[in-house]
Write a structure and sequence with these properties.
Blueprint (H helix, E strand, L loop, with lengths): L3 E7 L12 E6 L5 H11 L13 H6 L3 E6 L5 E10 L21 E10 L46 H7 L1 H14 L10 E4 L3 H14 L2 H6 L2 E2 L12 E4 L4 H6 L3 E4 L13 H11 L4 H7 L8 H10 L6 H13 L6 H11 L9 H14 L5 H18 L15 H19 L7 H14 L7 H23 L8 H10 L1 H14 L4 H10 L11 H16 L3 H12 L8 H10 L7 H10 L2 H7 L2 H11 L5 H13 L6 H18 L6 H11 L5 H15 L6 H10 L2 H11 L2 H9 L1 H13 L7 H18 L3 H14 L2 H29 L1
Parallel strand pairs: 6-8, 6-9, 7-8
Antiparallel strand pairs: 1-2, 1-5, 3-4, 3-7, 4-5
Helix pairs in contact: 4-8, 8-10, 9-10, 10-11, 11-13, 12-14, 13-14, 14-15, 15-16, 16-18, 17-19, 18-19, 20-21, 21-22, 21-23, 22-23, 23-25, 24-26, 26-27, 26-28, 27-28, 28-29, 28-30, 29-30, 30-32, 32-35, 33-34, 33-35, 34-35, 34-36, 36-37
């Protein structure tokens, strides 16, 4: 169909305003309304570059840039136009630049714009992209004769912009990927919002070539959204999505915050992009294979997905980087049905090329997924190189996340060659005991060894003995570091290994069972996160106990004795037959605390002393006795006595001294301890240092309570008084002042007589005792005697005489007389005051 033409020219020679020279429409074809002309006018205006002479030569005039524009108008129609400078020959202020021209140039330069209006849905002739109209011979620099020209048809004509694009793309190699990435973003369905991509070239024809590259590379609908102009002085105010500027205007574009590509300057350092599609497209152009873009678009996937283009490029023999190869492998893994056998083989050959030395972890992961997708779908002979690459990377690269092939992945000599090459390396690393090795790494090596048929029977016990503690340590470190819940990172691969290899499962579970008595809490926490398969015929008593304790705790709550019984039953063994189950059970139930005395008594009676000795649980019972001593329970002293009898050689040091001190407390209160009480208390406290303050107080209290009793041996009291121990004497003083002693003194004359004898018997025994005894006489005994009836006082005096001497009785009468006279004197003084 015919397309309406529009012509526009500058109105006055050399006149330039802020928006370019003023002008007017000189011809308008049918169907172009006045409203559209208002939109078109700013699109076709032209502004000369800086520094253009008033009277340029013909060569200089031809070298000036031309503005080739493609725009979308408000009604959905489109405009393709060319604005070019022409020589002003003085045709009058209202005429065309060359109309009525004389024999030679007169002055200045005008511009002439020629535009083609495309109604909505109407393409250019031949359905060509707009950029291919560049350099068409149908563009004119004068307005056709007649006021309004007949509609002109734009025949197919040559497409000069498409010629030589390969050479141009190669010459712009450093900028290709970054420019293509920006052009892709600019071609999106959302408007660019007045922020165009700026291409800086010395020739506007090169900007058109960039747009030609875009029209080949981008899908058709994206390319048609890419509005552009090949030359402008004002990129910041342009409505186009891509604009071209000369180097002199690049600084202004950067100052406006636009995305600027200075393709006329030195290549940018690095100059790349993380857009894998754009990077792959750039490699295709540098390989002079633009036909591959059409092939890639025939494959399933999103328009700008890197996978289809990367697969097409690799199958065509184009080398890609690791990101491109990963994209190709990932796309093919998701769509293994999309490629025929030939292209599948080509892709695998490209991915496994021995010349590649920059493979990355994500690339290997994608290759592993591809192998998993092709396994069973493609012949083993096709996928064998991929399997060999993955296995080699698993061993040499340390990539623990790889999906490994099955044992039947190799056919013929491929598997034997890989096994022969890797077996020594696998066995050497598995047997290395000099450095730490992660659980994931060990699991990966064991899986590869089985895959390749490597015999590791002799090395397996040592491997597992190192693997078992590493499993617990890594899980605990991960949990403490991040408070992680659920499976540790290595757990899925470990469980898969145990499912695959019965001999490894048996050995590892046995090793963990042997470790459990040493740290049952850690094993229990691990089993709570990772459910190991130990439901078979192996005994594994300790693992079964560790697995049982969370449920028992949840069900039985704070009844630790009941939990202990249930956990012990889960072992399936008697502590008499296997004493170590005692250690595991105690560690699980009382991991971070000591048992109470009642719980310790339960444990002591549940097994023989030999069982506790073999299990080492006697130490927990000692902790229970010493910890309970702070609470002042008499049961702790009884437990201490039994522990000293049951483990006479095992208990030593300060623990033994503490238990002996508890036992002495028991004897002081209930029995007849060996002589030398005070000295034994002092000695045992010194040996038990740092002794718990409560235990020291209990020992001191038991000693002085016995010394305050009337039936204590005189020798013990003598040793106590003459030992001159300030702490013991202070404890005696405190106990003597208690209400229990005061009540006894008032109620029992014999006891009061005994205390008088003791508190007056050693007036020169060191420096500590005499003032304490004198104070007790005055502050404790005297108030008690004052409160007695006369007959009780007489009995006290008689008892002192009977148990001591006549002099002692005289001393009591004198001491008591002082008290009586004191009372009498106070009474007389009171009467005098009242009189």
């Amino acid at each position: 169909m015919s397309l309406a033409q529009v012509h526009y020219t500058s109105a006055a020679p050399g006149a330039e305003g802020s928006e370019g020279p003023a002008g007017r429409f000189t011809a308008v074809g049918p169907g172009v309304s006045g409203a559209l002309l208002t939109e078109i006018e700013p699109l076709v205006r032209y502004e000369l570059p800086e520094g253009v002479a008033d009277r340029p030569s013909d060569g200089e005039l031809r070298s000036l840039p031309q503005s080739f524009t493609y725009a979308v108008l408000s009604d959905g129609s489109r405009l393709v136009s060319r604005s070019a400078p022409v020589r002003d020959t003085g045709g009058g202020s209202g005429g065309d630049a060359v109309r009525g021209a004389g024999p030679g140039p007169r002055q200045g330069i005008r511009f002439h714009a020629h535009a083609v209006h495309l109604p909505p849905g109407v393409p250019l002739p031949g359905d060509r992209p707009p950029v291919e109209a560049w350099r068409s011979p149908l563009w004119v620099s004068t307005t056709p004769a007649g006021a309004i020209p007949d509609p002109l048809t734009l025949p197919p004509g040559p497409t000069a912009v498409s010629e030589g694009l390969d050479d141009f793309a190669v010459s712009r190699g450093p900028w290709l990927a970054a420019v293509l990435a920006d052009l892709r973003r600019a071609s999106g369905p959302t408007e660019s919002g007045g922020r165009p991509v700026v291409l800086v070239e010395r020739q506007c024809a090169d900007v058109a070539r960039w747009l030609g590259i875009a029209s080949v590379t981008l899908p058709r609908e994206s390319a048609e959204r890419l509005t552009f102009t090949t030359y402008t002085r004002r990129p910041g105010s342009s409505a186009a999505r891509v604009v071209g500027v000369l180097p002199g205007d690049a600084a202004a574009a950067r100052a406006a915050g636009l995305r600027v590509h200075e393709c006329a300057e030195q290549p940018p350092p690095g100059g790349g992009t993380d857009d894998v599609w754009a990077t792959t497209a750039a490699r295709v152009w540098r390989s002079r294979s633009p036909e591959l873009f059409g092939e890639a678009r025939e494959l399933p996937g999103e328009p700008f997905a890197a996978g289809p283009l990367a697969v097409t490029a690799l199958c065509a023999g184009i080398a890609l980087g690791p990101d491109g190869r990963a994209a190709a492998a990932g796309w093919a893994a998701d769509r293994p049905y999309a490629l025929d056998a030939k292209r599948t083989g080509q892709l695998i050959e490209a991915l496994t090329s021995p010349g590649i030395d920059d493979r990355t972890g994500p690339e290997f992961d994608a290759a592993g997924r591809l192998f998993g997708a092709l396994e069973g779908r493609s012949p083993a002979s096709v996928t064998a190189p991929l399997a060999a690459m993955l296995v080699t990377e698993a061993v040499r690269g340390g990539n623990g996340s790889l999906e490994l092939p099955r044992r039947d992945a190799f056919t013929g000599p491929e598997g034997a060659a890989v096994a022969e090459r890797l077996a020594p390396e696998i066995l050497t690393e598995l047997g290395d005991t000099t450095g730490p090795r992660s659980v994931a790494r060990t699991v990966q090596l064991l899986r590869v060894a089985r895959l390749l048929g490597v015999d590791r029977t002799d090395a397996l016990p040592g491997i597992v003995d190192r693997l078992a503690p590493a499993v617990l340590a890594e899980a605990a470190a991960e949990e403490s570091r991040a408070g992680a819940e659920g499976l540790p990172d290595f757990a899925p691969a470990l469980l898969e290994l145990l499912d695959e290899q019965f001999e490894v499962r048996t050995a590892l579970l046995g090793a963990l069972d042997r470790i459990a008595p040493q740290d049952p809490g850690a094993v229990a926490r691990f089993l709570e996160r990772v459910t190991l398969p130990f439901t078979g015929t192996q005994a594994l008593p300790h693992l079964r106990m560790c697995a049982e304790v969370p449920g028992a705790m949840a069900t039985l709550g704070g009844d630790r004795a009941a939990v202990w019984h249930r956990v012990l039953r889960a072992a399936g063994l008697s502590p008499f037959a296997e004493p170590l189950v005692l250690r595991t059970a105690v560690g699980l139930v009382w991991e971070d605390r000591a048992p109470t005395v009642a719980e310790a008594r339960l444990l002591l009676e549940a097994a023989t002393s030999d069982s506790h000795r073999a299990a080492g649980t006697w130490a927990r019972l000692v902790d229970a006795a010493l910890s309970a001593s702070a609470a002042g329970t008499d049961e702790a002293a009884s437990l201490a006595h039994d522990l000293l009898r049951g483990f006479p050689t095992e208990i030593g040091g300060r623990e033994r001294a503490g238990l002996l001190l508890l036992d002495l407390v028991r004897e002081l209160r209930t029995g007849a301890p060996d002589p030398g009480w005070a000295e034994r208390v002092r000695t045992l406290c010194a040996q038990a240092e740092p002794v718990e303050p409560a235990l020291r107080e209990r020992a001191y209290a038991a000693l002085v309570e016995r010394l305050l009793a009337p039936d204590r041996p005189g020798a013990e009291l003598y040793d106590f008084v003459h030992g001159d121990d300030p702490d013991l004497i202070a404890a005696y003083d405190r106990t003597a002042r208690t209400e229990a002693v005061r009540t006894r003194l008032r109620a029992q004359p014999a006891y009061a007589a005994d205390c008088f004898s003791v508190w007056t018997a050693h007036p020169h025994a060191g420096r500590t005792w005499p003032p304490v005894a004198a104070a007790l006489l005055e502050e404790v005994l005297r108030p008690a005697v004052r409160a007695m009836p006369a007959e009780d006082v007489a009995e006290v005096e008689a008892t002192v005489g009977r148990t001591g001497s006549s002099g002692r009785a005289d001393a009591f009468r004198a001491w008591n007389r002082v008290s009586t006279l004191g009372r009498l004197g106070r009474r007389i003084a009171g009467r005098v005051r009242r009189g």
